[in-house]
Amino acid sequence: MKPRTLYEKLWDAHVVADLGAGEALLYIDRHIVHEVSSPQSFVAMRAKGRALRRPETHLAVADHAIPTRQRGTIDDPLAASQIAELEANVREFAVPYAEVNGPEQGIVHVIGPETGFTLPGTTIVCGDSHTTTHGAFGALAFGIGASEQSTVMAAQSLRQTRAKTMKVELVGTRHPLVFAKDIALALIAKIGANGAVGHAVEYVGPAISAMSMAERMTLCNMTIEAGSRIGLVAPDEATYAFIKGRRLAPKGDLFAQACKYWDTLRSDPDATYDKVVTLDLAEIVPQVSWGTSPNQTLPISASLPDPAEITDHSERRETEKALAYMGLEPGAPLLGTPVSHVFIGSCTNGRIEDLRAAAAIALGRKVAPGVKAIVVPGSMATRKVAEFEGLDRILTEAGFEWRFAGCSMCVAMNDDRLSPGDRCASTSNRNFEGRQGPGGRTHLMSPAMAAAAAIAGHIADAREYVA
Amino acid sequence: MTSFTTVTGPAAAMPEENIDTDIIFPARFLLLTAREGLGAHAFHDRRYHADGSEVAGYVLNTEPFRAPPVIVTGANFGSGSSREQAVWALHGLGVRAVIAPALGEIFHNNCLRNGIVPIILPPEQVADMLASAAAGISFTVNLEAQTVTVGNAAPVPFDIQPERRLALLNGWDETDLVLARFADDIATFEAGQRKIQPWLYPEDIEA
After folding, report:
1. Fold of domain B7-172
2. Contact B178 A119 (CB under 8 A)
3. Sequence spans of domains, chain A
4. What average pLDDT does this structure show over B68-94?
5. What is the ipTM, given to two decimal places?
6. Do A148 and B113 touch (CB under 8 A)?
7. What is each CA distance from B17 to A30, A196, A218, A315, B175, in whole angstroms?
8. Superfamily of domain A287-465
C-alpha cells in the first residue's frame, strides 16, 4: 500500500462514497452546535420534517452571544432570544446540551476536548471556522456552514473535496516565553493568509511532541488564519493522557482498545506531502500583529513597514490601507504602541495554560492606568481550575476583570466590544477590520505578551517581565 | 436552493485582498436568526457611516453597482469566519457570482449551497476583469457553458466540480440528494465503523 499521511488515513477511513473528481461523501462522527450558526440549520430540519440521525453525536452550547460579565441574566434581547432559540431547538431535536449556567458551558473548541467529546480519529464539524482546533487530537475537524450543518444533522455525512497536504516542521529550541501563538503567527506571516488554502496542514517535529495539548490546540486553531480548514497533530501519549477519564471518553477496556486504534493514526515514515514548510523555533521571538490580516505580523523587535519602500503595487496598497485603519505611522517601532484594552481569552488562548502564563506576568504588578483589561476563561471548567489555583486573585489584584466563560471580545456580538479608535492587545485569532467592534484596532499576541501590554500600557516585550 | 440561470449585468470591482466574512457581514448582525433580509447588512461598515448615512464613493453606493449580480475581487475573499450569513447577505444584495484568484474555502462551499457561483481564475485574468468591472462593462456568467464573458471579449472558461454544477443549475437540495442516493451506503459505513471503533457509538454503550 502506498504510504499515507495522517490526513489521508483519516480521509480514507471516513469515505462513505467516492464521488469522483476529488470529492467524496465523508461520514461525520461528531458535530458541535452553537447558538449563532445553528438556528437556520434547525429551521431547515423542521421545514423538511427531519430528525437527527444520531442525536448522541452532537453537543450544543451557547458561547458567542452569551455575556461574560454575569450569569443568569442576558441584557441584550437579541442575544437572549438567540440563546432561547438554541434551547428550544436542543429540546425539540434531543441534542445533548451544556447548560448556560452549568459546569460544562464554555467555548465550543474548549469544551469539546474538556468533555472528551473530541477524540482522535474522528471527523468533527461545527458551524465555526476555528473547528481546526480539534485537529490537535488527530481528528479531521473543520468548519462548515449552516446548510452543511443541516445535512450533517440529517445524514451524518457531507460532501467534501479532498485537500492537498502540507507538512509544517518545527525544529530548534524556543525561548521559554515563545508560545504556540507566536509560532502560529510567525508561520502565517511567512506563508500568508492564504498560504495554506486547499491544504490540510500537519504539524510535526520534536517541538510538537514536547508541546502541551493546549499549545497544540492553539497551533491548530490558528491554521484557518493561513487559509486551511484543517490543522493536524498526530495523537500520542500526551493526547491519551489528556483524554483519559473525561466524561465522554471511552472507559476501561474500550479505552485501551481505542488507544490501540489511535496508535495507527500517524503519517507513514515515507509519506510525501504536497508542500513542506520548516520553521526554526530558535529564530522566533514574541510576535505581534500590526495590520488587519493575521499575516501582517512582526517580531516584537521590528518596526512597522513603510509603504514608500514597498515596490509591489498591491502589497503597498494593502499596507497603506492597514496602517491607515490601525492608525499607525509607517516605520514606527511596534514596541511602545499604546493600548486602551487588553483581552485574554478565546478558543485560541482561553485555556488554563494561557491563564497561568498571563498570571505569571501579572503577579505582583498592576494594570497601567486607563487600560481596561479583561480575562475570560474559555470554559467554566477552566475558570474553576484557575480559581482553585488562585489565578483569579492574582489577576484581579493586578486590576484585570475576571469573567465567566464565552467568546467575549473575540467576536463583537456580545457585551464586550471595542469602540471606534480603541486599540486592543488581544489573545484572540483575528485582527480583521471591526472584528472586536466597528473601528476597533486589534493586535494579536500570546497571553504573556497581552498581560505585559496591560501592565505597561503599551505593546511590550513579555521577556522583560519575567519575575 | 434557487436554480441558477445565466446572469448578466454590472460587476462590482473590489480590488482588495482578504475581504473576510466579518467585512461582508459584521458579527453584530449575527444575532439575527433569519436568513432572509440580510442583504441590508452586507458590507455594512464599508457602506455606511456610524450615523447610518452612506459612505460616498464606495462601490456598492455607486450606480450601477448597488445590486451587482457579479463581484470581482482580490485573493482570499470570504476568508475567516464560517458564517453562512455572508453568503445569504450577498444573495440578498443580488449577487449570483463571485470571481477571485482564491476564495475562503468554507465561503466557497457555502456559495455552492446557496445558488452563488464561485469562480476561481488566474490573478492576471482577474486583474483584467477588475479593470473592466470598474469601467462598467457588463459581465455574463453562463454556468451551463462554464464561461464568463466580459463585454464583447471571448468567453473565459472556468472550472467547477460537475456534480456541484448540476446541483446549482437545477437548484437541488443537497440533503435531499444525499439521503436519496446514499442512505444505504451510510448505513453500511456505520455497521463497519461500529465493529472497528465501537467507542464512537455511545448510544450502544449506554443501552
Report:
1. Aconitase; domain 4 (3.20.19)
2. no
3. 6-262, 287-465
4. 97
5. 0.95
6. yes
7. 34, 15, 25, 9, 33
8. Aconitase, domain 3 (3.30.499.10)
